[in-house]
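Q: How would the structure tokens look for this protein?
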Amino acid sequence: NSEALISILALFWFCWLWQREFWLPPGITWQDMEESEDIHYPQPCDLLLSIPFALILWCLGFFRDNAGSLGPKAGFIVYQCDFLHLKQVGPR
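A: Here is the predicted structure in token form.
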């Protein structure tokens, strides 16, 4: 039966992937990694915190990259560095 073969292969792959010797240093077991009142480990949902920070960094990069084109329109004096020579781009 092909379904039985697939389930056996999946079980073999799962057991091989999560073997203790592959992930943990010698002398440590999975039971040592369980959480308690004093010990807390990161959870997968903690990765969701990176999304707002990535959005903030993206916005900062967007405004930094477009400061040369938005600055003169807003009336700011913008200088552009071209091989250590400064030239004025915006209005004075």
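The mean pLDDT is 80.

The longest strand covers residues 79-82.

Upvote if useful.
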